Write a sequence for this structure.
């Protein structure tokens, strides 16, 4: 019995090692030729000089854009595979400050209006702050980027119960079609063509994996008049799953 | 007073990356002499036999065959005659372990190789600003 436990542990260690090696190979060995493609493209473009057929220039731009996309996908895969290894520090987080920071990091214009409400007894908590920041940022970022109206309203509501915080992020944007709502958390899935919106399609996957990892829940529901509602249930006591 | 240009030793195994540095030198109008070693063993040899004359600065990749960048740094810092050379790591590795190991071995900077050549030109220009100070 003891021997079989030992053998299982050894097998687990070997698998973990294999996984880590794989991640490292993806991060370094694939990035090198990918960067080479991007660099050589720029050199050729440069060497051709200024008198070049616009079609050729357009193709160069497409080529560079697609390599850029590949890099983003690769970085997203790496991020996803390292969720339980990085930025795991527990520290005191002030909710209004954290939401404010997320909003400040977004790329948005004057026509985006944020309305934030807190229903909290205590606005501070000890949690994996960077992870929480990442989740809230990703959902806010989607709400801004995929919004289709001239004036974009985004609502954040943070409340609590005995065991968890409930963070509701909603918007009055286009919403997500009923038949697509199960796909949005899948890696690299984008509702629109990647040519229409330059999006990697990894933000929600990473967010849901983080929430799952801390023992919480994330769900999407359609808003009453279109729009989206993302509800995050974030536990007050973090139990990290290995 | 005549300025003495710093000699640059690039320790890099990837041909495209070597060409990248050469191009970036030319784009930034950098006149310093550039020496290239394909791995740590070759680099140590070039430094010890003074193929790369003083003053010298090293631009170092991490992942290389035979002797990688971190192993090379350990040898360099253990060598009385070479231990004071400024080293800049230039790598695709975003691994915390590589960064910590490199800084523990007193590197002057840790630069992630950017995807675009335009950004790479800027990174090399920043490096040039640093070693220009050494040339004063």
């Amino acid at each position: 019995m003891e021997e079989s436990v030992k053998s299982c542990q050894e097998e687990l260690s070997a698998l973990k090692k294999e996984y880590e090696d794989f991640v490292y190979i993806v991060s370094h060995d694939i990035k090198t030729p990918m960067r080479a493609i991007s660099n050589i493209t720029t050199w050729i473009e440069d060497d051709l000089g200024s008198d070049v057929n616009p079609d050729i220039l357009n193709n160069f731009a497409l080529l560079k854009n697609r390599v850029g996309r590949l890099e983003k996908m690769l970085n997203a895969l790496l991020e996803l595979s390292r969720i339980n290894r990085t930025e795991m520090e527990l520290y005191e987080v002030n909710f209004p400050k954290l939401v404010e920071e997320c909003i400040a990091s977004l790329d948005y214009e004057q026509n985006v209006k944020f309305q934030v409400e807190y229903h909290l007894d205590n606005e501070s908590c000890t949690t994996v702050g960077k992870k929480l920041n990442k989740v809230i940022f990703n959902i806010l970022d989607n709400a801004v980027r995929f919004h289709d109206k001239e004036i974009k309203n985004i609502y954040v509501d943070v409340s609590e119960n005995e065991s968890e915080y409930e963070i509701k992020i909603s918007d009055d944007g286009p919403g997500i079609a009923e038949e697509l709502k199960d796909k949005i958390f899948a890696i690299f899935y984008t509702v629109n063509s990647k040519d229409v919106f330059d999006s990697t399609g990894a933000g929600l996957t990473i967010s849901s994996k983080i929430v799952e990892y801390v023992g919480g829940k994330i769900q999407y529901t359609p808003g009453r008049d279109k729009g989206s509602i993302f509800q995050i249930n974030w536990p007050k006591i973090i139990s990290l799953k290995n | 007073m005549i300025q003495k240009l710093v000699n640059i030793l690039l320790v890099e195994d990837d041909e495209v990356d070597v060409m990248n540095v050469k191009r970036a030198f030319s784009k930034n109008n950098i006149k310093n002499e550039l020496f290239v070693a394909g791995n740590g063993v070759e680099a140590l040899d070039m430094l010890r036999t003074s193929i790369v004359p003083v003053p010298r600065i090293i631009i170092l990749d991490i992942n290389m065959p035979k002797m990688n960048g971190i192993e090379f740094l350990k040898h360099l810092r253990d060598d009385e005659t070479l231990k004071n050379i400024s080293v800049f790591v230039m790598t695709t590795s975003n691994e915390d372990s590589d960064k910590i190991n490199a800084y523990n071995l007193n590197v002057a900077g840790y630069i992630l190789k950017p995807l675009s050549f335009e950004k790479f030109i800027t990174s090399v220009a920043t490096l040039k600003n640093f070693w220009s100070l050494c040339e004063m």
